[in-house]
Task: inverse folding
């Protein structure tokens, strides 16, 4: 526990991700494998079934300290972290405890579920007595959940990758499987298995070339296939050696977030890698982008989550078939292969997969021009009304710019973020981007917004990572847009300098500034936002130029912005 | 009502003096030399004998100042005043005010833990006690300072072995000297910020032991940064001048570092939980030890402490920011 405490303290103050990875590597490789296994269990936010809740922990505090509930509540308002509040309220001065993590789990945590209420309280009291305050915080979080390590999962996986020599993506994939922490498990976990590891590894995500608006039309003069792009997650669905995986572009396995899509992928022929977008869907237009975000936030999607936030895997490309990489083939060929695979799959789905768990959906939605439902499934309506969670995107052949422009102009009506285009044949486009997808976006709107606040990089007083801009609503400025890291260093530095000189108030990493600086901001769309007083959030907001000589009163109003879309 | 809060600070009408005034006044009675208690501009100052040189350094050599030994009293317009150790920093004092048999004690800042750099807190019996409550929540309980000092020594040694600079952020008066005293047996030189250095002679003259120290000039820092500990006030954030964040480690010495979630939110480095203020237990014990009929809490959120002690049968309430004479008398009569 002492090493774990040390790790937490070091991670809290680590100045960079590289240091965090180094700390994690040093920790996980220096402790016994059984401790590493349990550490990983908690780092992955898994929870033991202790059948012990907050109420019981509060009762231990009340019996040990005589502090009534109002004291605990008042303290928690100050600390803003219940496990920590309870750890601090416990009156023991506790030293740094020498007990190992696995011993703590085996002796104190695992038995809790079989204990009576009284025994549970006594066990927790004994553990608290023995542990230091920081260790008590960790112990409480092991019981109550919410274990915050101070390092994100990719960093933990990177550290494990460095220890084992296994690619990070494979580490992430291995960790989503069902496993029980033990020394044997950890040792086999960090042991490479080339065959399975290769089967799990995603293909390279070829970057999508975002074409500026207005685009260079000469790039779009010859045969193009185009499809509407929607808010969602770019993924690869992989079926190899009886293993199915969904990978995000950030190389995070998403199997547990989208179990219904995994079920679909498992019906693909082995040696298939499909690429596409996971988008939200509903029986009403438009496809709700927030569904995907909701699903990405859950650790494991339950049936309830699947029903409340339904999603679709829209297949746009095929990267591998029969284990052969097709990424260098012209799209025309890939299109044919993709169609064949999806036909095979739809046949399999009609036999094995079409077991409805969701009802009352409107299949008409998919028969609109977004998804080519006809290529997917020809099931009898009386068997099920459930559209499959995977479908081939509808493609449009565009032989000239005018036809592309026509589609581009209806993007907003379709609630699409843009058009994804790819040349049909690479010989028409001899340059290096010939075989790459391009994203064409509709012309953006512009508004005059005032800088309201900035968020500092944790651990750095002068480097800012996000700037919030606002517009007028009645007589006050309310936030409508957040500008992230997509801008050049120079843009951010000049904004940062302004923030440093004009900070009114600091709260944590957030600096509120004098609303004096006006920028012209471009944006693609408006989203509803319950978190902002304005009720809206500008999508893909970008800095255009600083408007010098423009008074704060000249900033746009929320109503003006709404009228632009 | 012997002492009442006013916009200028705690005021004793009978003696016509202010305790730790916030503005310029004629007569200022000072509990200790921290800048939020000792301010420039008053006509006359009164403080403890050990506080005198610190106060002159902070407020100017030529201020009109009278100093009293702990426990020795003086009379102003019939009001008897004496200073008693508060255990906060060198020269810190509780101020005992007596008028016609009624005794009030203003604690100033205090701590009940032993601290070799100043005289220990002395509980005083009184009718009314005005206590600080900076850490008036039971989440604040200080660990044994020796445990923290051992941690500091180990941390410094580990950093030295790794070739990493060690920076301690500690208030220039009080905390920095406690850190230095804890390292008195160190064979390594300690680099200290000039703001800290200027107070050291007064501590040495009171018999406080320190290791060998050197001013943390840019040249010295660059030359000795890998072996020496660097102590600087939190506001200077000296570690930022050391360049690559991988080449240094820093620790804050403060009670505020006890809460991890706050530390993360406020972006603070790790810390040694060493405070010059009383923790929850210290506050409860000190208030009970006065056997006061009435206790007022100031300097901090006293809502939990006052309710807790009131439920235990004591009369404890938060001192209002400002109270006209008439309403204080009225509240006393009620």
Result:
């Amino acid at each position: 526990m002492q090493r774990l405490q040390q790790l937490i303290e070091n991670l809290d103050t680590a100045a960079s991700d590289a240091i965090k990875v180094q700390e994690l590597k040093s920790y996980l490789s220096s402790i016994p494998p059984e401790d590493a296994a349990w550490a990983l269990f908690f780092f992955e936010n898994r929870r033991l079934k202790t059948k012990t809740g907050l109420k019981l922990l509060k009762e231990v505090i009340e019996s040990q300290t005589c502090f009534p509930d109002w004291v605990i509540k008042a303290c928690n308002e100050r600390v803003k972290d219940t496990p920590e509040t309870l750890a601090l309220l416990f009156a023991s001065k506790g030293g740094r405890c020498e007990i190992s993590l696995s011993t703590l789990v085996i002796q104190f945590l695992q038995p809790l579920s079989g204990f009576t209420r009284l025994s549970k309280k006594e066990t927790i009291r004994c553990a608290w007595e023995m542990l230091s305050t920081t260790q008590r915080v960790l112990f409480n979080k092991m019981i109550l959940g919410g274990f915050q390590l101070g390092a994100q999962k990719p960093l933990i996986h990177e550290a494990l990758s460095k220890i084992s020599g296994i690619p990070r993506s494979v580490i992430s994939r291995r960790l989503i499987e069902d496993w029980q922490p033990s020394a044997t498990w950890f040792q086999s976990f960090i042991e490479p298995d080339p065959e399975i590891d290769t089967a799990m590894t995603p293909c390279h995500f070829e970057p999508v070339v975002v074409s500026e608006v207005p685009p260079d039309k000469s790039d779009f003069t010859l045969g193009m296939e185009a499809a509407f792009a929607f808010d969602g997650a770019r993924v690869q669905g992989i079926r190899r050696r009886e293993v199915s995986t969904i990978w995000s572009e950030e190389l995070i396995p998403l199997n547990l977030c989208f179990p219904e899509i995994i079920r679909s992928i498992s019906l693909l022929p082995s040696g298939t890698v499909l690429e596409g977008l996971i988008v939200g869907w509903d029986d009403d237009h438009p496809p709700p982008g927030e569904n995907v975000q909701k699903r990405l936030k859950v650790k494991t999607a339950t049936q309830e989550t699947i029903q409340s936030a339904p999603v679709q895997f829209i297949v746009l490309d095929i990267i591998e078939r029969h284990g052969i990489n097709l990424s260098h083939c012209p799209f025309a060929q890939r299109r044919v292969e993709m169609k064949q695979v999806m036909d095979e799959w739809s046949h399999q789905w009609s036999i094995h997969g079409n077991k409805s768990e969701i009802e009352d959906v409107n299949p008409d939605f998919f028969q609109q021009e977004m998804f080519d439902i006809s290529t997917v499934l020809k099931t009898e309506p009386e068997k099920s009304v459930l559209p499959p969670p995977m479908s081939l995107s509808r493609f449009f052949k565009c032989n000239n710019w005018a036809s592309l422009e026509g589609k581009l102009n209806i993007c907003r009506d379709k609630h699409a973020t843009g058009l994804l285009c790819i040349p049909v044949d690479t010989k028409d486009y001899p340059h290096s981007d010939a075989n790459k997808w391009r994203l064409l976006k509709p012309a953006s709107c512009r508004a005059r917004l005032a800088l309201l606040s900035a968020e500092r990089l944790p651990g750095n007083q002068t480097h800012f990572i996000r700037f919030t801009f606002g517009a007028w609503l009645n007589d006050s400025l309310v936030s409508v847009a957040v500008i992230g890291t997509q801008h050049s260093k120079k843009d951010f530095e000049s904004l940062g300098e302004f923030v440093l000189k004009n900070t009114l108030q600091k709260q944590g990493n957030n600096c509120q500034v004098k609303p004096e600086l006006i920028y012209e901001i471009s944006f693609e769309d408006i989203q509803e936002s319950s978190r902002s007083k304005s009720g809206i959030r500008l999508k893909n907001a970008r800095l255009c130029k600083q408007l010098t000589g423009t008074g704060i009163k000249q900033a746009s109003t929320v109503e003006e912005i709404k009228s632009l879309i | 009502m012997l002492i009442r809060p006013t916009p200028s600070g705690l005021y004793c009408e009978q003696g016509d003096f202010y305790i730790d005034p916030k503005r310029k006044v004629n007569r200022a009675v000072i509990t200790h030399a921290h800048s939020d208690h000792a301010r420039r501009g008053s006509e006359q100052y009164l403080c403890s004998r050990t506080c005198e040189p610190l106060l002159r350094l902070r407020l100017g050599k030529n201020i009109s100042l009278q100093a009293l030994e702990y426990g020795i009293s003086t009379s102003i317009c019939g009001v008897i005043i004496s200073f008693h150790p508060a255990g906060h920093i060198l020269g810190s004092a509780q101020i005992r005010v007596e008028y016609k048999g009624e005794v009030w004690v203003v604690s100033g800042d205090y701590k009940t833990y032993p601290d070799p750099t100043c005289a220990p807190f002395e509980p005083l019996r009184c009718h009314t006690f005005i206590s600080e409550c900076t850490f008036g929540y039971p989440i604040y309980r200080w660990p044994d300072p020796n445990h923290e000092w051992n941690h500091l020594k180990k941390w410094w040694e580990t950093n030295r072995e790794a070739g990493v600079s060690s920076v301690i952020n500690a208030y220039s008066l009080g905390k920095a000297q406690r850190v230095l005293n804890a390292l008195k047996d160190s064979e390594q030189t300690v680099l200290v910020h000039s703001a800290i250095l200027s107070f050291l002679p007064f501590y040495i003259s009171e018999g406080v032991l320190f290791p060998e120290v050197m001013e943390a000039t840019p040249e010295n820092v660059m030359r000795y940064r890998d072996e020496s500990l660097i102590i600087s006030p939190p506001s200077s954030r000296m570690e930022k001048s050391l360049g690559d964040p991988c080449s240094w480690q820093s620790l804050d010495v403060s009670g505020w570092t006890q809460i991890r979630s706050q530390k993360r939110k406020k972006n603070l480095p790790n810390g040694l939980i060493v405070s010059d203020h009383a923790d929850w237990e210290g506050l409860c014990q000190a208030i009970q030890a006065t056997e006061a009929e009435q206790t007022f809490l100031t300097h901090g959120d006293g809502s939990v402490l006052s309710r807790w002690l009131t439920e235990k049968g004591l009369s404890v309430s938060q001192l209002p920011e400002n109270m006209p004479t008439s309403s204080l008398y009225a509240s006393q009569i009620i």
User: Anything to note?
Assistant: Chain B has a mean pLDDT of 90. Residues 261 and 267 of chain B are 10 Å apart (CA to CA).
